Amino acid sequence: MKKKEIPVDGMSCAACAISIENTLKNTPGVKVAHVNYANHAATLEWEEKEVSLEDLQNHVRSTGYDLLIADITQEELDEKQKEAYLNVKKKTIYAGILALPVFLIGMFWMNMPYGNYIMWALTTPILLVFGNQFFKNAWNQTKNLTANMDTLVAISTGIAYLYSSFNTFFPEYLSQKGIAPHVYFEAAAVIQFFILLGKTLEAGAKAGTGEALRKLMGLQPNDLTVLENDKEIIKKTNEVRLGEKVLIKPGQKIPLDGKVIEGESYVNENMLTGEPIPVMKTLDSKVFAGTINQSGSFVFEVEKVSANTLLSQIISRVKEAQGSKAPVQKLVDKIASIFVPVVLLIGLITLLVWGFSGVEEPWLRGMLAMVTVFVIACPCALGLATPTAIITAMGRGAEMGFLIKDAESLEKGVKIDTIILDKTGTITEGKPKVSTFRQTQYYNSADAKALYSLEKKSEHPLASAISAYLNEELVTIQNFKSITGNGVKGEFEGKSYKIGNLKWLKNEGLGLDEDLEAEANQALEEGAIVVFAAKNEQILGFFKIADQIKENSKKAISRLQEMGIEVHMVTGDQQKTASYIASQVGIDQVAASMLPQDKSQYIKTLQAKGKKVAMVGDGINDSEALSVADLSIAMGQGTDIAMDIAEITLVHSDLNHIPQALGLTKKTVKIIRQNLFWAFIYNVIGIPLAAGVLFPAFGFLLNPMIAGAAMALSSVSVVANSLRLRK
């Protein structure tokens, strides 16, 4: 049994993925086939003895798509997808430019000289050049005995175009029989433009799906410095073996997982924990690929090679999570799969019934009735139902402060009953600040300059928070010394100043009264970081450093709970800090010290209980959880990776926009369903009338021109209904 993920070329919609998947599943020898439109890839398991990869490629090619079985780089694949999106976008623009005058002539200037010839000249390239994919896809669907929206578009616009072309160049044929030679170029042109517009919107939303994975992969540097016999040798990351010694210099990304064997430094592990404060790494400390070294240098021994690092596991799980979300078949395509054959059958029955009816000119009347059936069945309203609502909702969302990725995101938002919030950067600001400086009687304003200047010389991650709080005049510090993991000390105007942790200061012989220590312990209980300052043998006080809660967080969480949504907080921070922050904003369910895989597992556990979960995060460490969640929401001031994965992005990182976004999703999906219902009902009523069901009893036969006008009216009603979202 062979298993492999293979890139797929030529997909332009979710229905394409369904079609390819069905083709592969029906191929003898294929055990598992899953085609993911999100990352344009097929995950296959097949018996090599029964079917070869080349056979699978040929089967897929027969449907108009391609399996890229030859070796292809991610960059080449990304370029192909980008080209496909730009191509459909260009076609849509050109089709729109040509369709506008056709629409104006067909609806308002029907009697202008040479109007039919002008419309024919403008409509022909729309159908045969910019919209030819509909005819190609329809043919491929027909060969596989299936039908979708493309089939309906191709048949309806094709018949409208051929009938109109015949009447343009041979108008006397119908005129001699007392029938007006109407044309329907505007129907064919406008339908194709709007369907193209819908595909462009969808392709644009999906084009950036792989960006998150590319950026995650970019966290691992391609080159590194290996120490061999005390010599520095540059190697490719994927060439390094277990046990080799890697040198990390200031500011470098750590390329692999390992253990520090020499040196020490602070390492920013934000991508793993979400916490902004770098972690001290000394002898035997673990380091992880993708994290960033600060100012020191160290050597580590490789314990996991490129494919097995924690970062690689995160990338793999994000990819799996994105792939596990099977493409949602559009409701329009579901309707079309039944609707198309029914319409074709009705059209054929109409022709035959009229042909053998015995009335005057039976076959001509039958042909006109059949054309009227196909014209009134044109999927203009069906095609407009989703894109007009999406465009309106996206515009409204942007005005309100959040960006919605696509129609699928809107549909998911309706079902959400549980929300997972990251702490740092989501509920809190994500920037540690000094909230208070508890002074003792020994402190005076002159000491502020010394403490400020001492911290300005320090490379400790919290030094900038303290210096920003003091914001004093810079003075010269004598005998400055940094004691790694403890603090800094120096002299100013003959006095010795120290800033650091309490244990170090006590070891240096400084005492602390019980009341001050009790206050410091209380700050620690609240999850704050406490840094003490001293002058000579006296404690000057302590700085309370904390990540501030955002102003609107508590109100937003309360609103979500009022909507009946369960709110959880999941964070990589310690339990004390997490519990304190949760208590301040009204969250009862808290999970602390969570690594990326723990967060995603937490969501899967909730999903297993039947919950529909939305994840709100801002960091690389949230990317796996965002991928696993039913709906992913990113903070606009977070990392690009989080925003690339997210289906909704909060532009201003304000949690108050979440209840607004969920409310808009419910309204939008309701509008889309209304649009589809009315478009479908319009056809249910219109098609029998077009076929002539009332002719035997009342002598009423629907004129093709009226059918075209009715079709246009249905489209207008759909657009008007969608515009209600603007309110």
From TrEMBL:
Taken from the record, one Pfam family name reads Hydrolase
Q: Does the keyword Metal-binding apply?
A: yes
Q: According to its UniProt record, where is this protein located?
A: Cell membrane; Endomembrane system
Q: Which domain of life is it from?
A: Bacteria
UniProt xrefs under CDD domains: HMA, P-type_ATPase_Cu-like
Task: Classify the protein's membrane topology as the record does.
Answer: Multi-pass membrane protein
Keywords in alphabetical order, please. ATP-binding, Cell membrane, Membrane, Metal-binding, Nucleotide-binding, Translocase, Transmembrane, Transmembrane helix
List the coiled-coil residues.
none
> Could you tell me which residue ranges the HMA domain spans?
2-68
Looking at the UniProt entry, the stretches that span the membrane are: 92-111, 117-135, 147-166, 178-197, 335-356, 368-395, 676-699, 705-723
Location (main, coarse): membrane
Is Cell inner membrane tagged as a keyword?
Answer: no
As for family, the record states: Belongs to the cation transport ATPase (P-type) (TC 3.A.3) family. Type IB subfamily.
**Protein name per UniProt:** Copper-translocating P-type ATPase
Native source organism of the sequence? Belliella aquatica
Highest classification ranks of the organism: Bacteria, Pseudomonadati, Bacteroidota, Cytophagia, Cytophagales
